[in-house]
Amino acid sequence: MKLSIKIKILITFCTLLLYFGIAFAEKPIRIVSLAPSITDSLYQLDAEESLVGVTSYCRNVCCAEIVGTLTNPNIE
Asked: Does the global pTM surpass 0.70?
């Protein structure tokens, strides 16, 4: 299937826009982790000061609020 030149240019433009949007994005202010593996990764990246919520399965987290689980979140 051949793509027209306009579609190829549009896809390239969107890809570049997405890349530069992510590359120059500011550091997240607040993070809610919905998986223990994500929480562990945040601690390894020294981003625990931005962590404000975790699931009830996350261990060794002292300062974040427990927001339930992925399948049963606390919507408040």
From this structure: no
